[in-house]
Design a protein that fits this description.
Blueprint lengths: L1 H5 L1 H24 L5 E4 L4 E2 L4 E3 L5 E4 L4 E4 L2 E4 L4 E4 L4 E4 L2 E4 L2 E4 L4 E2 L4 E3 L1 E3 L13 E3 L2 E3 L4 E2 L4 E2 L8 E2 L4 E2 L7 E4 L4 E5 L23
Parallel strand pairs: 1-4, 2-5, 3-6, 4-7, 5-8, 6-9, 7-10, 8-11, 9-12, 10-15, 11-16, 12-17, 16-18, 17-19, 18-20
Antiparallel strand pairs: 13-14, 20-21
Bound molecules: coenzyme A.
Length: about 210
């Protein structure tokens, strides 16, 4: 009983006040993006520091129950589209920058300080500074049930159920059910069902189907 009482200030601030602040942030984002296509579904937790930069006719859809924990920043340029599936968790300082489309599946997790971006500046025309050179863009799809760990940069697709190790840079598509690590990220393990192994998983990558550790 005493312990419950002692927990009351924590609950009032970290649960109840947090919930009210999340609703206020969601309303603020909705009220200031009437010009764009914005859908934030039920039970989305819009945490402190959430920032949306969508000056034009972009689309943002955030699925039910998704958590935008702390300082999540989403930039959408032109008619770019970002879709985040239900039940996903973007943790701390995740940055999504999109000019074409970025789709994140359901139940995905993105760790601290990670970037998902659909392109960047080209740079090989030495007559111009890199900033004046056009973007090279590529839509990005991250499948369902993907875990992207801390401090990753994602500039290509990640197949469903795959796991990207901390500090990785995904420059080439990662097939489903793969563990990939490094910069550039390379597949080091295939843990899916044998019959679903993509031919894009290199033959020397070990399979660990059925090994639960
Ligand atoms: C470095 C970069 C500009 C090179 O682009 P590119 O000329 O199109 O090069 P490619 O994609 O053809 O990659 C060439 C090789 O370098 C690797 N590579 C590319 N970027 C890499 C990176 N950041 N770290 C490690 N390896 C990288 C690729 O995997 C490829 O090797 P591989 O064929 O053995 O897989 C690009 O990959 C990059 O890092 N872009 C940054 C995107 C970004 O941060 N945008 C937001 C700011 S606007």
């Amino acid at each position: 009983m005493r312990r419950n009482y002692a927990r009351a200030p924590w609950k009032a601030t970290h649960v109840e006040l947090h919930r009210l602040a999340s609703i206020a942030r969601k309303r603020y984002v909705q009220a200031t993006h009437l010009h764009a296509n914005l859908r934030i579904e039920e039970d989305v937790d819009v945490g402190p520091g959430f920032r949306l930069w969508m000056p034009e006719d972009g689309t943002l859809v955030i699925g039910r129950g998704t958590e935008l924990r702390h300082h999540i920043y989403i930039e959408i340029y032109g008619d770019g589209e970002v879709r985040i599936g239900a039940g996903s968790h973007l943790t701390y300082y995740t940055h999504i920058a999109c000019s074409t489309s970025i789709t994140i599946g359901e139940r995905c997790g993105i760790g601290l300080s990670s970037l998902v971006v659909d392109g960047g500046h080209t740079f090989r025309d030495i007559a111009k500074t890199w900033m004046d050179q056009p973007y090279k863009l590529r839509p990005i799809t991250i499948g369902d049930d993907v875990a992207i760990h801390s401090q990753c940069t994602i500039i290509n697709d990640v197949g469903h159920h795959s796991v990207i190790g901390a500090n990785s840079v995904v420059t080439r598509p990662i097939p489903p059910y793969c563990l990939a690590v490094g910069a550039p990220a390379r597949v080091i393990e295939y843990f899916g069902p044998p019959e679903e192994r993509s031919p894009d998983v290199p033959p020397d990558v070990p399979a660990t189907w059925g090994v639960i550790v």
